[in-house]
Design a protein that fits this description.
Blueprint (H helix, E strand, L loop, with lengths): L35 H11 L25 H6 L5 E5 L34 E5 L9 H7 L4 E6 L1 H15 L5 E5 L6 E5 L4 E7 L4 E8 L2 E13 L1 H4 L7 E4 L9 E4 L6 E3 L8 E2 L1 H18 L7 E5 L33 H20 L5 E5 L2 H5 L31 H19 L1
Parallel strand pairs: 3-6, 3-9, 8-10, 9-13, 11-12, 13-14
Antiparallel strand pairs: 1-2, 4-5, 5-6, 7-8, 10-11
């Protein structure tokens, strides 16, 4: 394997954290004499209330038609991923921190004490068109009988959890599977015959942590000629795969391919060539795409790549006092397309395009869900200090996203891209 030198400035790594989920129910039951219209009206009012304890469970039937309202000509010219945030009550969410019992404690920012609520009242607006509002009934109808898998780290799971909240407003899912570490999850919607899977993987490729005296060191050996079997074993049964990764690459890594001399990330060994994290990220996605395109039992798998979602630590990193306490989105003017975050995004898009070309004639399809621009502007959407971790007091979470919050826009974009793919396959 050839390794090209890159000399970008190093960026502090982010520490992954995973917490156990449990059902969260809070707030009084609605009085029986309230009608549906009063409930829905109170729901929209409560999203603007400064008191998060007032968030009550809405009765949400199918709020939108299953038909896509976007005119065909507008779809053709619209770049869904280039735009800005506009003020809109409730943002993209149709759920609250009370109406969705599956929100994990660490993402339930209102329950953990966050008082400002304005950050939920923004919606992503492409410059040239509109993103149709997420329609839970339409989504379940569109993916009837299908299996959709989120493949990646805890930020991938964050999107999985957001989608689960959207869909559970109109159909109650069954909790089918949870592994011992609560990393692999399966939920099933029986009426719609839709299965959602979360397939955990740190690097997409095989990675093993170095252990000294029985204790993990945080240093990993990555094998680029071996894909992480924990997710690839499920590929033949999946219709849609959403791949994403990035934050685990900001640590000391030793990079291997066969018997070649290893290279590394953030190491100080003078006999080993050192690279920046972008190099390892490119090689991992390239290896994963190669595996997918060569998978003979994967049928007409459609693979979406969700681009890098930046962290927003200020005045330090996660373990040096860094925090994220903003309360509103920033302008697109703050986006630096020469930044390291943007470089990771470009790598993912470049490798996806190569995989798309290679997949032609093999029945494989690849598309991008580019969230980097949108999320670069949302330093206000992280849990920050409001993530309820008892063992890491004083540390802020500026990597994951509050629910409800800006991350809900990812699933509006996901639905728009799936509609595009379904239309392409039908044509």
């Amino acid at each position: 394997m050839r390794f090209s030198n890159s000399h970008l400035a190093e960026k502090s790594h982010h520490k992954h954290r995973s917490q156990r989920e449990r059902w969260v129910w809070s707030g009084p039951l609605l009085c029986s004499f309230l009608g549906i219209s009063a409930i829905v009206s109170f729901f929209f009012f409560s999203l603007r209330s400064p008191n998060p304890s007032l968030l009550l469970r809405p009765n949400l039937p199918a709020l939108q038609s299953i038909h896509d309202p976007t005119p065909p000509k507008e779809k053709q010219r619209c770049n869904l991923f280039k735009g800005h945030w506009i003020k809109q009550a409730g943002g993209a969410g149709i759920y609250t921190n009370w109406s969705c019992p599956t929100i994990p404690e660490s993402k339930n920012c209102f329950k953990q004490g966050r008082k400002d609520m304005d950050f939920v009242n923004w919606r992503w607006k492409p410059d040239e068109c509109e993103v149709p509002r997420f329609d839970s009934m339409a989504f379940l109808h569109l993916l009837r009988g299908k299996k959709l898998a989120f493949i990646g780290d805890s930020v991938a799971r964050n999107q999985f959890e957001s989608l689960l909240c959207f869909l559970s407003q109109v159909e109650t899912p069954q909790d089918v599977y949870k592994d011992s570490e609560d990393r692999f999850r399966t939920w099933y919607f029986p009426k719609s015959d839709l299965t959602l899977l979360m397939l955990w993987t740190k690097f997409l490729v095989a990675g093993e942590e170095r252990v000294v005296n029985g204790t993990g060191t945080g240093v990993f050996d990555l094998q680029f000629n071996e894909i992480d079997k924990s997710w690839t074993q499920h590929l033949p049964e999946i219709d849609y795969a959403i791949l994403s990764n990035g934050h685990w690459f900001f640590r000391v890594l030793y990079l291997h391919e066969g018997n070649n001399i290893p290279n590394c990330i953030y190491c100080s060994n003078p006999n080993i060539t050192s690279h920046n994290p972008d190099f390892a990220l490119r090689m991992a996605f390239r290896a994963a795409f190669k595996y997918i395109n060569e998978c003979k039992n994967c049928g007409k798998l459609v693979t979406f790549v969700r681009t890098f979602s930046p962290a927003h630590f200020e005045n330090g990193v996660w373990n040096t006092g860094g925090y994220c306490n903003r309360t509103g989105p920033s302008s697109a003017k703050v986006i630096d397309q020469e930044s390291f975050d943007w470089k990771l995004r470009n790598i993912q898009i470049e490798e996806t395009e190569k995989a798309r070309l290679d997949g032609r004639g093999k029945g494989k399809r690849f598309e991008v869900i580019d969230v980097t621009m949108a999320m670069t502007m949302r330093a206000d959407g992280h849990p920050g200090e409001f993530w309820g971790n008892k063992w890491m007091k004083g540390y802020n979470d500026c990597v994951h996203w509050c629910m409800p919050g800006p991350i809900d826009a990812w699933n509006e974009l996901l639905m728009a891209v799936i509609r595009k793919e379904e239309a392409a396959m039908d044509s």
